[in-house]
Structure formats: structure tokens, C-alpha cells
Amino acid sequence: MPIIASNFKTNHTRKSTAIFVNEVNDYLKEKNILSEVYVFPTATSLDIFDTVSNFIIGTQNAYATASGSFTGEIGTVQLDEFEIKTILIGHSERRHILGETQNVIAQKYEFYKNLGYKIIYCIGEPLEIKQKGIKSTLEYIYEQFIGIDINYENLILAYEPVWAIGTGVSATNNDIENVHNAIKEKINKPLLYGGSVKSENVREISQIPNVDGVLIGTASWKVEEFIKIIENTKDL
């Protein structure tokens, strides 16, 4: 069964998230869908949702702390209130826009690993690296594993070429297969693909060797489209 994950980024409100989650949950229940489904809402939209066991709500980000003086951040005290045990770490927007270094990311990873969280760990290369070829791409990606325990049992990887996120340009099937094959040879963990995935291309992408599912941004923010994505991959 594929893993289907939605990253809301800075989209949706508390109210619209609740509607979205309930609609997806009703669909999963009604159709008896067995795919693992994840939704990562904004921090202000986290809540305790009554969902089927294969539908998991996670946090897009949190600081490596229980609580403390970290303005604008949340920690495990806030996550525990909503029984959140799943986190995205290393997303390219955290790295490239918000300036998280590999050191900071590794510390965060270690902190949440020690608490047994399910971690979806994101890796990927910018366009100028991709243009140098597969060797440079893999070198760049492997540097994103510095300080990361790749044997952690609760780890899911997500390969997201930075140049394909929200641009409408998806990597070619060949690009995806080459990178996924190389990563899987080194690290045998579930490996998602992310980067301009939508209902029209999700089935084809999910059938590429060593693609275990998808992490979706823009196309997953409309509940009808997200349900269509799950529907198009439910039998794989």
C-alpha cells in the first residue's frame, strides 16, 4: 500500500482543517481504504481528531524542546495535548527559506527520534546541483544525512527535488527512478517522492520502482483533489 502524505504548509485554518480531515476520514472509512495517509496541518490547526488507524495527523515542525523560551516555536508539551507523534523534519523550505542548518536539523531529528516519533525526513537538491548531473545530486543528498540515524525504525524518507516543489515541473520518471534506486541501495527505508505531484500523475509516479508513496503540497490542499489522489493509488 502506498503512503500518501499532505503538507498544508501555511494554508488552511482551524475550521477548514477540521472539515478537510473529517471528509478524508469519512472517505477512508466508507471505501475501506488501507493506504497509510498523513496530513500535516499548520500548528494553529492541530487538534485531536477521531480518525481511522491508518490516517495520521502530524506536525510540520517543532522545536527540539518540551517547552521553554523559544518565541514562535512549539514543543512536545503542545504536541502531547493533541497526541501528535509524527513530524516532518528537513523540508527544503525549512532549510532554504528559514535557514535551518544540517546541524540544527540533526539535533531536531535526534530529539524526536529519542521520543519515538515517526519522522518523515526530507531530502532534495536545488536546480544548480541537478544541472551538474546525478553524481553531484547524490553527493548533495548524502550530505543531508550527516548526523542522521538512518537505522531508526520509525523513519520515512521523502525525496523532494527543490526545483520541482510548487513549480508545476515534476522530475521525469527517469530522474525519480535514478535517485530513488541510489538512495534505496544505501538506506532501506520507505521512500516517498514529492514535487508537483497531482491526481493526474500520482499513479504513474507511485508505480516507479522504489517509490513507496508521495508527499504532496499544493495539489493536496483541496480535499476533492486529495481524495482523488488516494483513490488513484488505493490498489497499488
Automatic annotation (TrEMBL):
Enzyme Commission identifier(s): 5.3.1.1
SUPFAM superfamilies: Triosephosphate isomerase (TIM)
Annotated catalytic residues: H91, E160
Gene Ontology biological process terms from the UniProt entry: gluconeogenesis; glyceraldehyde-3-phosphate biosynthetic process; glycerol catabolic process; glycolytic process
One GO molecular-function entry: triose-phosphate isomerase activity
Location (main, coarse): cytoplasm
Pathway annotation from the record: Carbohydrate degradation; glycolysis; D-glyceraldehyde 3-phosphate from glycerone phosphate: step 1/1; Carbohydrate biosynthesis; gluconeogenesis
Cellular localization per UniProt: Cytoplasm
Keywords: Cytoplasm, Gluconeogenesis, Glycolysis, Isomerase
InterPro entries xrefs: Aldolase_TIM (IPR013785), TIM_sf (IPR035990), TrioseP_Isoase_bac/euk (IPR022896), Triosephosphate_isomerase (IPR000652), Triosephosphate_isomerase_AS (IPR020861)
Binding site for substrate: N7, F8, K9, G166, S196
CDD domains: TIM
Catalyses which reaction(s): D-glyceraldehyde 3-phosphate = dihydroxyacetone phosphate
Protein origin, superkingdom: Bacteria
Role description: Involved in the gluconeogenesis. Catalyzes stereospecifically the conversion of dihydroxyacetone phosphate (DHAP) to D-glyceraldehyde-3-phosphate (G3P).
Complex formation: Homodimer.
NCBIfam families: PRK00042.3-2 (NF000728), tim (TIGR00419)
Family: Belongs to the triosephosphate isomerase family.
Protein name: Triosephosphate isomerase
Organism the protein comes from: Arcobacter defluvii
Protein's gene: tpiA
